[in-house]
C-alpha cells in the first residue's frame, strides 16, 4: 500500500541513475522534486518513468493506482529554486568534482540549514566534494546501484566531517524508501566496487598462468556464484571493467592488489568486449569445464583479503561488507562468510603460497590483512 511520507526529496540529474532514484522515493510516497540541466532530459522524464511503471503494471507487479500515485509524487521543475522545501537532495549528475561542488554551492543558498546534500558519485572522494561546501557537515554519499529501482543496496559514505544527525537522517529516509543501507568509509570504490576487484583480477592472473576461462568460470559457478568472472566481464563489457580497474588502481596508488592485468588490456584492444560486441572472453560460449575447487578457494582467498584490508581502514563491519557484496553483486556469500567456511589458517596458507609463486612485483598483492593474522 502507498504510504505518505512527510519529507521531501530532491533529485538532480535525470539520467540512468537519477530517474531511477526519483522513482524509488516517489514510489515510497515521498514528494520528489527533480530536475536536469538538459531540457530534453527534463521534458522526457515523466514519460520515461511512466513507461517503466506501466511495464510493471503489465507484468502484474504493480497496480495502476500505485503507478498513478507514484507519478503524482513526481514534480519535474526547471530551476533549483524550486528545491527549497527539500529535506534531502541527491545528485546524480555528471561524474565531475567541479560540477558537483558547483551544484552543492547553488543548493546551499536555496535549502534550509538542516537539509542533507547527498552525492551518488562512484569514484570522487566525498571529502573533496564537501571541501567547498559552506556546511560540509551535511554532505555525504548515498551510492545507489544500477538499476536503482531493482537493486536493494545503497552504500552510505560519510566523510570525516559529516554530522551524525545527517547520517542518521539520510539512512532513515533511504530505508523508508525500501533500501538496505550499509555504511562504509569514504574510500575508493566504497565496498562493492572495491571488494569485487579480486573476482576479476585473480581470474585474470589464473588466465595468464594458462588456465582456460571456461575452467575458471566453472570453478566459481560450482562454488555457488551465479556468473563466473569471465561471464561477468562479458556482461559488463571488458572496456567498462578495464576503466573501473584502472580507476581504482590509480586511486589506490597502483598497489599490486589492484594490478591491471595485461590480458584485460589485450582483450579490450582486440575489440571483443563481450555481449555488446557479440564476442568476449567466453561469450557466446558458456562453460562446461569440470570444476576445480582450488581455483574457487584461490579467488575467494583474495576476495576475503581485500575485504579484510577494507575492514582495517575502519568505518564498516564484516556483516556490512558481507551484506553489501551479496546485494550489490548477487554473490552467494560474503567474504567473511567464506572466511568462516575455510578458516583463517587455510586462507593464510593460500595467500602465502600465492605470494611465494608470484613474480616479485606482484608478491605484495597477497600480503594478508591484519584481521587474518590476529
Ligand atoms: N550508471 C551507473 O551504473 C552508476 C552507478 C552508480 C553511480 N553512478 C553515478 O551517478 C551519477 C550519474 O550517472 P548516470 O549514469 O545516471 O549518468 P547519465 O549521463 O545517465 O545522467 C546524468 C544526467 O545529469 C545531467 N546533468 C549533467 N550535469 C548536470 C548539472 N550540472 N546539473 C543538472 N543536471 C546535470 C545530464 O543532462 C544527464 O541527464 C554519476 O556520478 C555516476 O558516477 C552511476
Structure commentary:
The chain is α/β, with parallel strands linked by helices and 374 residues long. The chain folds into two domains: 8-183, NAD(P)-binding Rossmann-like Domain (Rossmann fold, 3-Layer(aba) Sandwich), CATH 3.40.50.720; 192-373, N-(1-d-carboxylethyl)-l-norvaline Dehydrogenase, domain 2 (Orthogonal Bundle), CATH 1.10.1040.50. 50% of the residues lie in helices and 10% in strands. The protein contains 17 helices and eight strands. The protein has helices at 16-27, 39-58, 64-73, 97-108, 126-130, 164-176, 192-195, 197-208, 213-222, 229-236, 238-251, 262-270, 293-312, 318-329, 335-342, 344-357, 370-373; strands at 8-12, 31-35, 74-76, 88-91, 116-119, 139-144, 153-158, 180-183. It has an eight-stranded mixed sheet, sandwiched between helices. α5 links the parallel β5 and β6. 45% of the residues are buried. Residues 12-18, 36-38, 41, 92-95, 99, 103, 120-122, 144, 146 line the site of nicotinamide-adenine-dinucleotide.
Q: Say what the CATH topology of the largest domain is.
A: N-(1-d-carboxylethyl)-l-norvaline Dehydrogenase, domain 2
List segments where confidence is low: pLDDT < 50 over at least 5 consecutive residues. Answer: none
**Span from first to last CA?**
49 Å
Mean pLDDT across the residues is: 97
| Category by helix and strand content | alpha/beta
Q: Multimeric state of these chains?
A: single chain
Globally, the shape reads: globular
Amino acid at each position: 500500500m502507498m504510504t505518505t511520507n512527510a519529507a521531501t526529496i530532491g533529485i538532480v540529474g535525470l539520467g540512468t541513475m537519477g530517474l531511477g532514484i526519483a522513482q524509488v522515493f516517489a514510489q515510497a510516497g515521498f514528494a520528489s522534486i527533480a530536475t536536469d540541466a538538459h531540457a530534453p532530459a527534463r521534458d522526457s522524464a515523466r514519460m520515461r518513468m511512466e513507461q517503466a511503471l506501466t511495464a510493471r503494471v503489465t507484468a502484474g507487479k504493480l497496480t495502476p493506482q500505485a503507478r498513478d500515485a507514484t507519478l503524482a509524487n513526481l514534480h519535474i521543475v526547471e530551476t533549483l529554486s524550486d528545491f527549497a522545501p527539500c529535506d534531502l537532495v541527491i545528485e546524480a549528475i555528471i561524474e565531475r568534482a567541479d560540477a558537483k561542488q558547483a551544484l552543492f554551492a547553488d543548493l546551499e543558498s536555496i535549502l534550509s540549514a538542516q537539509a542533507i546534500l547527498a552525492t551518488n558519485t562512484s569514484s570522487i572522494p566525498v571529502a573533496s566534494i564537501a571541501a567547498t561546501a559552506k556546511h560540509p557537515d551535511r554532505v555525504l554519499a548515498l551510492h545507489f546501484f544500477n538499476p536503482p529501482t531493482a537493486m536493494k543496496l545503497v552504500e552510505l559514505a560519510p566523510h570525516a566531517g559529516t554530522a551524525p544527525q545527517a547520517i542518521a537522517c539520510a539512512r532513515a529516509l533511504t530505508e523508508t524508501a525500501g533500501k538496505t543501507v550499509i555504511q562504509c568509509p569514504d574510500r575508493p570504490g566504497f565496498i562493492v566496487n572495491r571488494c569485487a576487484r579480486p573476482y576479476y583480477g585473480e581470474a585474470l592472473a589464473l588466465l595468464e598462468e594458462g588456465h582456460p576461462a571456461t575452467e575458471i568460470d566453472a570453478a566459481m559457478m560450482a562454488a555457488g556464484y551465479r556468473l563466473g568472472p569471465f561471464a561477468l566481464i562479458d556482461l559488463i563489457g571488458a572496456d567498462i571493467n578495464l576503466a573501473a580497474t584502472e580507476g581504482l588502481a590509480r586511486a589506490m596508488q597502483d598497489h599490486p592488489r589492484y594490478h591491471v592485468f595485461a590480458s584485460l588490456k589485450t582483450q579490450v584492444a582486440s575489440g571483443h568486449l563481450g555481449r555488446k560486441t557479440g564476442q568476449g572472453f567466453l561469450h557466446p560460449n558458456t562453460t562446461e569445464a569440470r570444476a576445480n575447487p582450488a581455483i574457487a578457494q584461490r579467488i575467494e582467498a583474495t576476495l576475503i583479503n581485500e575485504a579484510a584490508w577494507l575492514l582495517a581502514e575502519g568505518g564498516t563491519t564484516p556483516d556490512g561488507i558481507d551484506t553489501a557484496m551479496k546485494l550489490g553483486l548477487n554473490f552467494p556469500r560474503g567474504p567473511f562468510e567464506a572466511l568462516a567456511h575455510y578458516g583463517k589458517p587455510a586462507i593464510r596458507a593460500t595467500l602465502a603460497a600465492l605470494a611465494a609463486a608470484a613474480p616479485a612485483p606482484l608478491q605484495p598483492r597477497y600480503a594478508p590483512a591484519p584481521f587474518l593474522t590476529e
